[in-house]
């Protein structure tokens, strides 16, 4: 038996509770992992609160990422005792995820724990930090460089935003952090932001083309904010778009694309191929100092996940939330 956060649905009413589950109910993967840590991502909060249809079947164990130790393996790459990390691939959406003491997963979806990180640090980084690195790598593949001008990061106090600031500042970019929480300015500057702006300046409907302000951007927010970013990118600039904290819509025009040659680079973390995952995680392990990783995260017990999920969606949580699934 093992403990898990279980989402269930009866007559259209969803429940979320800690349950003791028989290991025999774990099916569908060739690697059994003893989970040490999982996390609470924005997507997990949407799933746990039922705010969005993230869980496609019920009952469902949420949790889009975890780090732990292999207990049994039928996969050539892994043997018992190996430390592994999982991000995405539908965990917590189409099959049972990481907010549990055990998980059974196809080995092809795992990566070895990057050298230099503990399982706890890997989950302090989690899907958010890994997505931040995917955004940075997407911008750099596009040719964005530090001398192209200021780089805007929206949703700055969130997990993706916090890591994006830390990574970009260390790569020499002048980072402008956009946030709704001005009280966190000192924290954002400590992460590496050169300036902090009020997100309200970006979140209202704006003109299709506005004064050029940013060489590039990482956007966690979507909606009018992303439209305004496109309208204010400098000629040839690019935005890596990964999130929808303001909204899923994109009320923009083609003007910035056809008149300023700007690029909108979509970033997905869920189905990224193995080699690109390894590259992103290795860069994180090499570039982001341990004290930044440790400071960006707070830790909760599995039983607190439901309460914290609600607060995360209210914007009351800053940085990353690690879940110790064994307490
Ligand atoms: P968090 O909840 O940690 O952070 C989101 C941040 O967005 C908040 O901290 C807040 O920052 C800002 N925000 C919240 N509400 C609004 C609003 N109404 N308008 C403007 N800004 C707002 O989430 P994550 O950092 O983990 O994820 C950020 C986004 O990226 C989410 O939408 C998530 O779903 C998405 N994501 C996508 C992935 C992918 O594969 N494409 C992978 C991971 C995440 P502040 O307080 O500083 O204003």
UniProtKB/TrEMBL annotation:
One Gene Ontology MF term: acryloyl-CoA reductase (NADPH) activity
Top-level taxon in the UniProt lineage: Bacteria
One Pfam family this sequence matches: ADH_N
Domain Enoyl reductase (ER): 9-323
Name of the protein in its database record: Quinone oxidoreductase
Species in which this protein is naturally found: Caballeronia humi
Organism phylogeny: Bacteria, Pseudomonadati, Pseudomonadota, Betaproteobacteria, Burkholderiales
């Amino acid at each position: 038996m093992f403990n898990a956060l279980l989402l269930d649905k009866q007559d259209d009413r969803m429940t979320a509770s800690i349950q003791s589950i028989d290991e025999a109910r774990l099916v569908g993967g060739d690697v059994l992992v003893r989970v040490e840590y999982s996390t609470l991502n924005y997507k997990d909060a949407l799933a746990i609160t039922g705010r969005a249809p993230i869980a496609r079947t019920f009952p469902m164990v949420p949790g889009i990422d975890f780090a732990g130790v292999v207990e049994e393996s039928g996969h050539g790459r892994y043997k018992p005792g190996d430390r592994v990390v999982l991000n995405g691939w539908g965990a917590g959406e189409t099959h049972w995820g990481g907010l549990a003491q055990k998980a059974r997963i196809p080995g092809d979806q795992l990566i070895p724990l990057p050298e230099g990180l503990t399982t706890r640090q890997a989950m302090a980084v989690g899907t958010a930090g890994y997505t931040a690195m995917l955004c940075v790598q997407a911008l750099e593949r596009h040719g964005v460089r530090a001398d192209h001008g200021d780089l805007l990061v929206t949703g700055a106090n969130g997990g993706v935003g916090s890591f994006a600031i830390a990574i970009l500042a260390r790569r020499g970019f002048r980072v402008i952090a956009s946030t709704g929480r001005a009280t966190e300015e000192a924290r954002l500057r400590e992460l590496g932001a050169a300036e902090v702006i009020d997100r309200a300046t970006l979140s209202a409907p704006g003109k299709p083309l506005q004064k050029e302000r940013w060489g590039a951007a990482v956007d966690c927010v979507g909606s009018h904010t992303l439209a305004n970013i496109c309208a204010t990118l400098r000629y040839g600039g690019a935005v890596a778009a990964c999130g929808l904290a303001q909204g899923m819509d994109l009320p923009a025009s083609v003007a910035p694309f056809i008149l300023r040659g700007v690029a909108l680079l979509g970033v997905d973390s869920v189905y990224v191929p193995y080699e690109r995952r390894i590259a992103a995680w290795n860069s994180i392990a090499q570039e982001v100092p341990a004290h930044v990783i440790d400071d960006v995260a707070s830790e909760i017990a599995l039983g607190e996940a439901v309460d914290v999920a609600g607060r995360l969606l209210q914007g009351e949580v800053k940085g990353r939330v690690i879940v110790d699934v064994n307490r």
